[in-house]
Structures are given as C-alpha cells and as structure tokens.
Amino acid sequence: xxxxxxxxxxxxxxxxxxxxxxxxxxxxxxxxxxxxxxxxxxxxxxxxxxxxxxxxxxxxxxxxxxxxxxxxxxxxxxxxxxxxxxxxxxxxxxxxxxxxxxxxxxxxxxxxxxxxxxxxxxxxxxxxxxxxxxxxxxxxxxxxxxxxxxxxxxxxxxxxxxxxxxxxxxxxxxxxxxxxxxxxxxxxxxxxxxxxxxxxxxxxxxxxxxxxxxxxxxxxxxxxxxxxxxxxxxxxxxxxxxxxxxxxxxxxxxxxxxxxxxxxxxxxxxxxxxxxxxxxxxxxxxxxxxxxxxxxxxxxxxxxxxxxxxxxxxxxxxxxxxxxxxxx
Amino acid sequence: xxxxxxxxxxxxxxxxxxxxxxxxxxxxxxxxxxxxxxxxxxxxxxxxxxxxxxxxxxxxxxxxxxxxxxxxxxxxxxxxxxxxxxxxxxxxxxxxxxxxxxxxxxxxxxxxxxxxxxxxxxxxxxxxxxxxxxxxxxxxxxxxxxxxxxxxxxxxxxxxxxxxxxxxxxxxxxxxxxxxxxxxxxxxxxxxxxxxxxxxxxxxxxxxxxxxxxxxxxxxxxxxxxxxxxxxxxxxxxxxxxxxxxxxxxxxxxxxxxxxxxxxxxxxxxxxxxxxxxxxxxxxxxxxxxxxxxxxxxxxxxxxxxxxxxxxxxxxxxxxxxxxxxxxxxxxxxxxxxxxxxxxxxxxxxxxxxxxxxxxxxxxxxxxxxxxxxxxxxxxxxxxxxxxxxxxxxxxxxxxxxxxxxxxxxxxxxxxxxxxxxxxxxxxxxxxxxxxxxxxxxxxxxxxxxxxxxxxxx
Lengths: 328, 458
Prior knowledge:
- The complex is a heterodimer of chains A (328) and B (458).
- By secondary structure, chain A is of the alpha/beta class.
- Chain A is built from 13 helices and 14 strands.
- Chain A has helices spanning 6-20, 44-48, 60-72, 91-98, 101-104, 134-138, 151-163, 176-179, 213-228, 245-255, 270-282, 305-311, 315-327; strands at 2-5, 24-28, 53-55, 76-80, 114-119, 144-146, 168-173, 181-184, 197-200, 205-209, 232-236, 239-241, 258-265, 291-295.
- In chain A, the strands form 3 sheets. In chain A, strands 3-2-4-5-7-6-12 form a 7-stranded mixed beta sheet, sandwiched between helices. Chain A has a 5-stranded mixed beta sheet with strand order 9-11-10-13-14, sandwiched between helices.
- Chain A is globular, with a radius of gyration of 19 Å.
- The N and C termini of chain A lie far apart (42 Å).
- The mean pLDDT of chain A is 96.
- With 458 residues, chain B is of the alpha+beta class.
- Chain B is 33% helix and 23% strand.
- Chain B is built from 11 helices and 19 strands.
- Chain B has helices spanning 95-111, 125-134, 152-160, 168-178, 182-185, 189-206, 236-251, 264-281, 287-301, 345-361, 434-449, and strands spanning 7-11, 21-27, 34-35, 40-45, 50-54, 59-64, 71-73, 77-83, 221-222, 231-232, 254-262, 307-309, 314-316, 322-327, 332-333, 336-337, 374-377, 397-411, 414-428.
- In chain B, the strands form 5 sheets. In chain B, strands 11, 14, 15, 16, 17, 18 and 19 form a 7-stranded mixed beta sheet that branches. In chain B, strands 1-8-6-3 form a 4-stranded antiparallel beta sheet, with no helix packed on it. In chain B, strands 5-4-2-7 form a 4-stranded antiparallel beta sheet, with no helix packed on it.
- Chain B starts with 6 loop residues before the first strand and ends in a 9-residue tail after the last helix.
- The interface between A and B is large, with 42 and 42 residues.
C-alpha cells in the first residue's frame, strides 16, 4: 500500500498493464514527450519507448479510429482524449464503430479499446475544458462507461477496462487528480466493471452519485452526522454502463429517501436513469420524492469565477440538499 | 460602507489547472506592513512550482490566517487585508452567500416545528407499505417530517416501541428541527476544538521570518505526539523524495562499485587558477566542475551509461543531461545541467553555481528539474569518503565524488603522499554489468588523472 493521488493511480494502472501485456499501448495528444497535459502519462514513453506511447496529431477522430482499428487487430490500445470536451470529433468512431463491431460482425470481431477522457469543471477552464459528456454516450448499448471517484477504484477500474474484451470509456475527473489521495495497493488488482460501491452506511437518506460530487457528499455526510445526527447512506455507482441495478435498488430501499447527484446537467443525465430504475423497482418503498442535484441545464461551464461557482456542485449545495431531504 | 476601512479576505489562487492546494512557504509581509498592488505577499510551495502570490490591491496587511508550512486549499482565505482607498470592488462575497444560504434552512426548520401540520395526512408509499405490514394505525403515529409528515422512520420507531409511545428517534428529530439553524452559526464541539488547536498553533508561526532571512522549507510539528515523541509534517518535497527513492529501490536492481583516483595534479591545477577564475568569473572554480567534465567525456565514450530500461528495450539518450544532487538542510533536489557535453569546465562551474544558488533560494523552476540522464552527487562536500547512492529513477547510474584525502600511496615501489579521492557508482544491473562499468570508471579515472597544470578550463 502507498498513499497516492488519483492521477498517480491512473498512471500506475497503465504502467502495470503495459508491463504485463505487450499489446497494451497508449496514444493521444502530448502523451509521449510531454507526458500528458496533466502528467497522467509522464514517464511512460521513457520507459516503454515511442512505439508504445504515441504522440498523435490534434485529431480525435483519428486517435479513436486508429485505436479501434488496432484493437480489432488484436492490440489493446488506451486512447487518451486530452479533455473530454475534445472528444466529440471522435463520437462517430466510438458510437458507430467501436460500440457496434461485435454486434455487426455476429460476434466474429471485437474491439478491446479503452478511451480515457478527463471530465469535469471547477478548474477555471471554461467552455472547452470543463464538460461532462457522460450523457452523450450513456444511452449507447455496446459501450461500457466507468467514472471512478476514489484513487483505489481509478486504478482497479482502469485495469479492468484495459482487460475488458469490449470498448470501455474511462471518465476520470480532472479535479480529483490531486484532490483525492488515499492508500492504493501497489500490486495487481481489479475493480469489476458494473459493480457499485457503498461508501458509507446510513439510515436516514441515500445519496447516489459518481465521480467528484461524491467528495462533497462524503464531507457533507460527515458534517450532518456531527451537527444534526443525520445518517447518510452513500452509493458510488463507479460504472455508468452497465448500471448496478441491484445495488441502486437496495440503496434506495435502505432509507426510502434518495438524492442523486452528478455534475453533468440534469436533463437526460445518468441520474434520470437511476431515478427511473428506482421508480420501476421500488415505488412502494419510497418515503420521499426522488431528488436530483445536478449541473444546471445551461450550454456551457462559465469562465467567470462567480458563475463557475454557481454552476459547480459544492459541499454546501450537496449538504443543503441532503438536509432538505432528511427533514422531509 | 465607504467611510469605514474595508477589510478583504485574500484567498489562495488556482496556480495550475489540476492543483487543489498549496503550502505557504514564507510570509513576505507582516501584519501592519503597507502593501502595494502586485507586491508579493507570500511564497507558496506546490509539487509543481514554487511561486509568489502578488497582492491584488493597495492596502495594509491584516491578520495572517494561514501559518507558514500550512497546506491551504485553493479558494480558502490565507490572510486579511485592509484597503487603503475605499473601492467598490465586489471582492468580499464570502459573507453574503452564507447569510443568504442560512435563510431557507431557517424556514424549513420553523415550519417543521409544532405549528405546521399541513402534511400530517399525506403518506408516502413507504409509510403505507410499512403501516400495512405491521398493522399500524397511522393516526396514532407522531409525524416528525416536514409539515408534520409521518416518515418511514416514524413508523419503524412506532413499531419498535410496541406501537404506543412516540419514538425516541422522534425526540431527536424534533429537537433537531427546532434548532438546526444554530449549526452554521455555532460550530459543533468538534469544530471548536479544531479551531482552538489551530489558534494555538498560529501565534507561533505569526512572528514569521521576514524578507531578509534565508528561506527554509518549514518543518512544522503536527499536533499529537506526547512526552516521548513528536511528529513532523511531511512536506510536498519530502513526499516526492520518499516516493522516488522507494520506486528506485524497489524497481531497479542496484549494483555498486568504487574506484580510487589520484587527483594530486588536479589539486595543484585548481590551486593555481582558482583565485584568478573567481576574480574574472565571479564564481568558484570547484573540483566538481572538473569531475563533471571527466564524467561527461567518459559517458561519450560509453553511451550506454546514459540510458533507461524500457522492459523490451534499452533507450539510450543522445543528449547528456547531468542531474546534480544538491542538498539543503532538509531536502535534496536534482537540478539538471542540460547538454553538459557541450560545455567547457568554466561553463560547468558557472552552471553548478547557478543551480546551487537557485536550490538554496528555493527558486528552482520545474524546467530546471527535468530531463536528467545521469546523476552526479558531490558527497565529498559533506565529508563522506564512501557512499552507496540510490539511482535517480529512471536513469541507469549515479556517481558520487567523495572527499579528497591525502594518503601514502605506492608509486614505482616508492611511497608518496598523494591527494586521493574515491568515486562510487550505483548501476542499474538490468542495463549495465561489471565489465562495462569498470571500463567507464577507468575512463573517468584516466580523465581525472590527466588534468595537469597545462589544462585549459575554457
């Protein structure tokens, strides 16, 4: 075990998988010589050489396309989108090709590609460096999507994603990179895709979410427990596609009061689907209307600091929503 | 408002995109100092850069809210400042949203009290389900929810208490509903304790170092410990050193060897020219500069020394960038002399001086630290005669230059007093073996011993 940052855990996962499996390679903008704009791939080119850590042109469609082709040929590419905001030119490759290859070829071909993309705002990045694009890919069968909150899960899920025989989108939160620090084993382990994780046991309210906002929920839960005696049950979805229906239902049943949080905007987001699952499966165990606290439905993350603050979830906003639900 | 002195909070700025916190290195202004806009008010240390935070306003320094060595989250206040001229800049927003935020909570709280019973008759599906399951008459259950609503927990508590008394849970809830707004205003006992202990820490740091004193990375005692032991905070730099060392030792199979070099001629050469050099160049002509030259020339003859292990291959670096281990009181850093093979002895001496000065002043930039391909450590400078260095990951080898010691040496069956020094080498045994390292060290030795009074440093 070693205490490491979320970003170190991601780097370590790639390094270990590249050492373990020669067909694993990384490609993306500035991933090689520079080691990534966030230093996520730092040192990998020095260790594995330029044929396994490829600096690509600024062409996301090509990065995804090349990775998909290599994956179909038997390689295990990790394609990095520098920011998930830049991912849209690659959506055609990801949704129309990667997601459908196995189905289209009647199980003859597969596409074990991983696309890593940093999501999330609150870093004074504005429109092109802050988006959460989960909902764009969320409704596409054939894709798996993971969005870890903890450093432990970041390593374990990335390793699982690399070994998965099908395309996996790995949404890492750039604000978590240095914010989340914890013990991460330095040996080989995976976190299975499709399994949610209970971060905190509680009996008054249930909070369901993924990625950075869970950090606020955990802080808020701690404060609410100390100040008001409110006990919150917190579920980290970890995998968005497939969702862990059983874990969602049992977490909802636990308190009957559910708050779903994410930074992606509310309409058509992951929370809508989670909410629908709960409504379908356990209506008669609900004690309050299902609540969602998400990014507002506005076109982009503002660059102005007060407006960015308004847009972003925070501990105070999450705490307030949790308190309201507890009081209901 | 404009007639009064306006006091603002200065917050920790976002220094780089992915940074979430930074450590206060040193306060450059003390409370009461006059500060002009853009004046640096403090130094901050992060694992990416060391920087100075400039003032955004003209004013007078107020209370310091963060101690030296304290890690402060981005956006958190670090100090207060009194504005000289009353400006209408909308900077002090901190107080406003907090007050505004308290409002809705207060409303729900009071409406959750005894008077409002508007939700008394509305039952959620969960309440219906539980009531049916346990045969509870809901009219007997006391509602602790919003507007007197019966919650799922109210029913469960009612059942647990044998269906007679209102649940003890309910007391907790109503007591809580009566005074929840106190919470934001009056911190809970836990927070008070934390604040107190912080306050206890602060005055010690407040007196602070001033501009004239040499900056040091602070070693701050952490709370805890007892009479027999105390704790020291792990600084970002210490943390980085620990991680790197651990990685190197656990990944690289270290080999080690040592040779002895006769530097008598070099000592004479340096004694002859050092004073003039100092006068002309303004920097000291150190033995280290001569050693670097000797090492760099030897690496050119044996380029495999300048390489990195990459599992299925060995990557040999064309540029020779020498990482120089420079120690301070409580850390060691390895700034890099880039393209050292293109510099003469004088150039190396100047570069060594520059980097060492930067390290000691804490002014190293990220760029100064990157790209090293081989490390040299002048361990002799602190009196060592033998060291077993840890390789600077992911390089292939590290060489140390030990103390120069006068010793009796046998030359042509006669005993002479010569100035001798040991050179030690730790090597990545995945890349390098004894023979190649032996040749390399022999070449360094030859280079060192071939310095003479005629050697040119330019």
